[in-house]
Please model this.
Amino acid sequence: MVLDNGAFHKAKALIIPENIILIFLPPYSPELNPAEKIWAKFKRDFSNRLFKTLDDLDACISKIIKTLTHDQVISICSFNYIFLIIFGLNYKSFWY
Model:
């Protein structure tokens, strides 16, 4: 799971399951966050449009999500650093 360095992501009481790896991004690096990249794609598809209701906005976003393929998500969200971390390589040298 890719996370920014928000304090709420580092709470001492946070219980992390064994099958989850937390990947903390360097400070001030939204360009490395896969969620930011997929959100940018969504925004392109519904920016500069007026929705009469939140339900209309929800329908638009749902339609965009449903049209995405697995390969598109991989293409938009993949970063080499994620694989370095998953396979246990020294990713700290990747940042600096």
The helical segments are 34-46, 54-67, 70-77, 80-86, 92-95. The longest strand covers residues 2-3. Residues 81 and 91 are 7 Å apart (CA to CA). The mean pLDDT is 78.
